[in-house]
């Protein structure tokens, strides 16, 4: 699930970077509490001359991913 979210974020950011001269991105909230996504975007940013700053996970609580995981478990997937 987070791999797909990472792909979507990278695709959206790639599009934005073609239209705007952005050098720094600050991420916070929602799914950005996930350290996999934080690490992935920081790494991606290094390869695209974009400084990605991630707010501490304790300030980016995300119950949506927990709800999605819970629904998946309930559905037996």
List keywords for this structure.
77 residues; mainly alpha
Explain this structure to me?
By secondary structure, the protein is mainly alpha-helical. It has one domain (2-75). The protein is 57% helix and 10% strand. The chain contains 3 helices and 2 strands; from the N terminus they run αβαβα. It has helices at 2-19, 35-47, 63-75, and strands at residues 24-27, 51-54. It has a two-stranded parallel sheet. Helix 1 runs parallel beside helix 2 (35-47). The longest helix is centred in the first third of the chain and has 18 residues, at 2-19. It is elongated and about 45 Å long. The two termini are 12 Å apart. The model has no long low-confidence stretch (mean pLDDT 87).
Quickly describe the structure.
With about 80 residues, this protein is mainly alpha-helical. It has three helices and two strands, in the order H-E-H-E-H.
End-to-end span in angstroms?
A: 12 Å
Number of domains: 1
Order of helices and strands: HEHEH
Main β sheet profile: 2 strands, parallel
Query: What is the strand tally?
Result: 2
| Low-pLDDT sequence parts | none
**Which radius of gyration do the C-alpha atoms yield?**
14 Å
Mean pLDDT: 87
Note the beta-strand portion: 5-15%
Placed side by side, the strands forming the largest sheet appear as 1-2
The global form is elongated
> What structural category characterises the helix and strand content?
mainly alpha
Q: Into which percent range does the helicity of residues fall?
A: 55-70%
In DSSP terms (H or I, runs of 4 or more residues), the helix count works out at 3
């Amino acid at each position: 699930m987070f791999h797909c979210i990472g792909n979507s974020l990278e695709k959206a950011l790639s599009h934005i970077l073609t239209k705007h001269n952005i050098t720094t991105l600050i991420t916070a909230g929602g799914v950005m509490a996930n350290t996999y996504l934080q690490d992935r975007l920081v790494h991606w940013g290094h390869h695209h001359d974009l400084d990605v700053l991630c707010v501490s996970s304790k300030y980016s609580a995300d119950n949506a991913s927990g709800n999605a995981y819970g629904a998946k478990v309930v559905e037996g997937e």
